[in-house]
Design brief:
298 residues, alpha/beta, Rossmann fold, six-stranded mixed beta sheet, five-stranded antiparallel beta sheet, 31% helix, 30% strand
Length: 298
């Protein structure tokens, strides 16, 4: 599959601070790719570099086969962009904004526009400054979808929104997923898990992993061991075991490279014979927390 987004060692430095550090991304067309990470991990910086909103320090990025540094006017007619801090002319009425934007996009679809207005219950005669935050995000998303973009980029679109509004935004996105690639950064991990096909994890500007959701859910497992006796944990534990904790004879940890046969052999090597072993799948939120806590411990 061709790539909708591709980066090669993409880097952004601000004097002594490296906001993005040699990031290699490959987002295939038609995927729903979620970029996750803590505040300050570099998610917004990555998006601004992709869209040529800021200049990079090193490396290369492409969107829809076009180098990001070459993105100009018409290039953006294939890209829908919604940001948490997006500026909208608040003195305008909703209807006037849509009228204004319509002229910039040759593929603007009036029928789709009407459908989105109805779906998001947008008040056409109301000034944007009078809208709630949730309604402003609906308007921004409708404006980004009405011209059938090949790529939709969303930067923290769900922040501070109530569950109903989030659900409406996700429904609107999923209806376009068959014709667009979606690239989204968000802290709402439960929401992301419900519809993302791929996920990348940024930490302090470094991309620690990038893979499809199925393989991610397969390789992370919560492991619970019941030993024959209560004894201190060994000091030398496998690097792939995260958050190893014991309570009496019970030991729990997250295996970040799970393979049942290998895990069973490692448990036997570290603890010897044990009474029982359980392997449980993890949610994306639990995986995120395990990775974040590993970083804090380091």
């Amino acid at each position: 599959m061709p790539s909708a987004i591709r980066t090669d060692k993409l880097t952004k430095r601000y004097r002594r601070v490296t906001a993005l550090d040699r990031v290699d991304l490959d987002v295939t067309e038609g995927s729903v790719y979620a970029l996750v990470g803590q505040n300050g991990a570099g998610k917004t910086t990555a998006i601004k570099l992709l869209l040529n909103l800021i200049s990079g320090s090193a490396g290369h990025a492409e969107i829809l086969g076009v180098p990001s540094t070459h993105l100009r006017g018409k290039s953006y007619t294939e890209i829908g962009y919604v940001s948490e801090n997006q500026e909208i002319p608040e003195w305008m009425k909703v209807e006037y904004l849509l009228d204004y934007l319509r002229e910039f996009y040759p593929t603007w679809d009036p029928a789709l526009e009407r459908s989105l207005i109805k779906q998001f219950e947008l008040p056409l005669d109301r000034k944007i400054k009078a809208l709630s935050r949730g309604m402003k995000m609906k308007l921004a998303l409708a404006s980004a979808l009405a011209f059938h973009p090949r790529l939709i980029i969303l930067d923290e679109p769900f922040g501070g929104l109530d569950p109903l509004v989030r659900e409406q935004l996700i429904e609107g996105l999923l209806e376009r997923a068959t014709e667009s690639t979606i690239f989204i950064s968000s802290h709402d991990l439960a929401e992301i898990e419900s519809f993302a096909s791929h996920v990348g994890y940024l930490e302090s500007g470094k991309l620690l992993f990038s893979e499809d959701m199925n393989s991610l859910s397969v390789r992370f497992r919560e492991v619970e061991i019941i030993r024959h006796s209560d004894s201190p944990l060994p000091t030398a534990l496998p690097d792939t075991w995260l958050q190893t904790k014991s309570s009496g004879a019970v030991v729990r940890f997250v295996d970040s490279r799970f393979d049942e046969q290998r895990a069973t052999a490692e448990i036997a090597r570290v603890f010897g014979p044990v009474r029982d072993t359980q392997f449980r799948p993890l949610t994306l939120r639990s995986i995120f927390l395990a990775m974040a806590r590993k970083s804090e411990e380091a």
